[in-house]
Write a structure and sequence with these properties.
mainly alpha, Serine Threonine Protein Phosphatase 5, Tetratricopeptide repeat, Rossmann fold, 5-stranded parallel sheet
């Protein structure tokens, strides 16, 4: 005691040690009790330290009689409740905690523990109410305040450290779990964030902020239907909330409910007109359904409100048929001169100016801006070309002729799907539009389901990506179930009742073997284009998501080589399974190639397929405006205007 000074100082020091050094707190409490036997505060510290060291029986021997002796000591009854909870004595713990909360309604950690206890007792409504009280007071929790401060300062590692430490002591703290989910979201780990938020809502269904976060994370992972379910709950409680409404519109657009999305955007923007990004999303929906002039107006409204919003400029230029006025081009250049312009806005503006200058036939200036945009975009993404090469090699090593022969007849034998695969900007949208003009075939969109199946198969091993090797261990029933899963989960995109649907996801070429195994009667069409034309067209196109290989000429060339080699492999081991359609052949003889396509798909010829440009269906891809016009030849040799700069591409392609 002589070393610590006064009794008050010794007690204060012991309290300070409890949270991070319970062993030293216990030692300090023992020293105090040696000098002042049965000192109630020292006994409390000793009992609390013993609990933190998991010596629960010793903690009970101290805290139970202390709680009886001190009926008005809030912290004693809270600590005694915690000991009983850890001993599994839920009823006693609940009674002790209720007593503590009766003494102090804003007891730190009290409502969190009460939520845990009621949840354990299957009193879900009571638990939800308790967690709601906890969330209201969580802002005053020192540990959560430190984590929140780190998040504000973009110190994600620091925030996670604080939260991990907090969750070690309180593993079911829904406020901490939500903050950790936010850390995961900012790190791009949406699946982990989804799991954390699902746990939050399991315990605290009325945790509105967590539910909104959950809807956002589901949307980011292309789980629009699940997100809509969460938003329906939120909107039932607060139907005027603009954030819920705008996210719902975005989700509806994701599942091809464009008219419903537009019906939400229009009144929302009438009420809240100063929303440039919402105007832009509105423009996307209008463009998709072919409302060209309204889409242009929406994009220009976004630009007027935020002159530096690069994506709005790019969306306007990406309509292909829209011409930027000289004043708009000058405004775009002025924005590029801003030193404070965000990288995302800057690369969008470079792509836009590249397109504008290409239209003006200033190919040198155009190339300079395309290259600048691609360089900036490449710096923002994580992509290793060797990983694509290795995956394609693993596909070829596994999927031999014998591998497929051993699995002949497996899968779901529904013949509804048509898959169009290949490289982006290779004519896949044209093929889709032709087929979707047939009376029996419905064009949907670039569906995420096949990639989702592959991703789930890849998670079966904790040692890394187990796909495609996991396919070797699947049973015939597994293949059938996966095919049925595809059909079930894509049902939401089908709007017309036609018996056949198209999935036009170019990157699915890498999953050709998977498609064959789970849907053996599905048609697979490989949209092919001259490699220099296809790759350069992809290079000058900024994609809203994915296609990370397309921002480097060398990586584009390597990707095309991997694609071509893999498709040649499938031609060899599954002869006749894939129909290859050359874009240049489509341009030369549309009627012949259309008949060839329809014959492969088992559909009779219809003249409407030759008038594909009259089809009013919604089209989401970069070619939306082009496929609303008759086929044209001008794009075949556009890459030659840039041939002087395409050496790295030709070298990677080995041309």
């Amino acid at each position: 005691m002589e070393q610590t000074g006064s009794l008050a100082a010794a007690l204060g020091h012991a309290h300070g040690l409890l949270s991070h050094e319970p062993r030293l707190a216990r030692r300090q409490a023992d020293a105090i009790l040696e000098a002042s036997p049965n000192h109630p505060e020292a006994l409390f510290i000793l009992g609390a330290a013993l609990r933190r060291q998991a010596d629960l029986e010793a903690a009970r021997e101290i805290l139970q009689p202390l709680a009886v002796a001190q009926p008005g000591a809030t912290v004693v009854h809270f600590e005694w409740a915690a000991v009983q909870a850890e001993l599994g004595q839920i009823q006693g713990a609940t009674a002790s905690l209720a007593h503590a909360l009766g003494l102090k309604r804003d007891l730190p950690g009290g409502w969190r523990l009460m939520g845990d206890l009621l949840f354990s007792s299957a009193d879900l409504a009571g638990a939800d109410a308790a967690y709601a009280r906890h969330v209201q007071g969580a802002a005053s929790d020192p540990g959560l305040m430190r984590a929140a401060r780190a998040l504000v300062e973009a110190d994600l590692a620091g925030a996670e450290q604080h939260l991990r430490r907090h969750l070690e002591a309180c593993p079911h703290d829904v406020a901490a779990l939500r903050l950790l989910a936010e850390v995961r979201t900012r790190l791009g780990q949406d699946a982990e964030a989804e799991a954390l938020l699902a746990l939050c809502l399991e315990r605290a269904p009325s945790f509105t902020l967590a539910r909104h976060n959950y809807a956002v994370v589901l949307f980011r992972q292309n789980q629009a239907q699940a997100a809509i379910g969460q938003l329906d709950i939120l909107i039932a409680e607060d139907g005027r909330n603009p954030n819920y409404r705008s996210l719902l519109a975005a989700c509806l657009a994701m599942v091809a409910e464009y008219d419903r999305a537009i019906e939400i955007y229009r009144p929302l923007l009438a009420e809240y007109p100063q929303q440039p990004k919402v105007w832009m999303s509105y423009g996307h929906a209008l463009k998709t359904v072919g409302h060209r002039d309204e889409a242009i107006d929406a994009y220009r409204s976004a630009i007027a409100q935020d002159p530096g919003l690069g994506e709005a400029y790019w969306s306007l230029a990406n309509m292909k048929t829209a011409i930027l006025a000289p004043a708009e081009v000058q405004a775009l250049r002025d924005q590029l001169d801003r030193p404070d312009l965000a990288v995302e806005d800057r690369f969008h503006l470079h792509y836009t100016l590249g397109h504008v200058l290409e239209q003006a036939r200033d190919y040198t200036g155009s190339w300079r801006h395309y290259a600048a945009g691609a360089t900036l975009r490449r710096g923002e993404i994580d992509y290793e070309a060797v990983q694509t090469t290795q995956r394609c090699q693993r596909m070829r090593a596994l999927m031999t002729a014998d591998f497929f022969a051993d699995r002949r007849g497996v899968g779901c034998h529904d013949q509804a799907p048509i898959f169009i695969v290949g490289l982006p900007r290779s004519g896949s949208t044209l093929i889709e539009q032709i087929l979707a003009s047939h009376s029996t075939i419905e064009g949907t969109m670039e569906l995420p389901e096949i990639a989702g199946i592959a991703r789930d198969l890849g998670r079966v091993s904790s040692g890394g990506d187990a796909y495609p090797e996991a396919l070797a261990g699947l049973s015939p029933a597994d293949f059938t179930a996966l095919g049925a899963r595809f059909l079930e989960r894509t049902q939401i995109y089908r709007k017309t009742g036609k018996p056949v649907l198209i999935d036009k996801m170019p990157n699915n070429f890498i999953h050709t073997g998977l498609i064959h195994l789970i849907l053996p009667r599905a048609r697979i069409i490989d949209a092919r284009r001259h490699p220099m034309a296809a790759c350069f067209s992809a290079f000058k196109q900024h994609f809203a998501r994915g296609q990370h290989f397309s921002y480097s000429l060398r990586e584009l060339g390597l990707y095309y080589r991997d694609y071509a080699v893999l498709m040649a492999h499938f031609d060899a081991v599954l002869p006749g399974r894939v129909l290859r359609v050359q874009y240049e052949d489509m341009v030369e003889d549309l009627a012949l190639q259309t008949r060839r396509l329809l014959t492969y798909c088992g559909a009779p010829f219809e003249e409407a397929c030759l008038r594909f440009h009259e089809n009013p269906r919604a089209v989401r891809t970069a070619s939306a405006e082009q496929v609303r016009r008759p086929i044209f030849r001008e794009g075949l040799e556009q890459w030659r205007n840039y041939e002087a700069w395409l050496g790295p591409l030709a070298e990677a392609l080995e041309l």
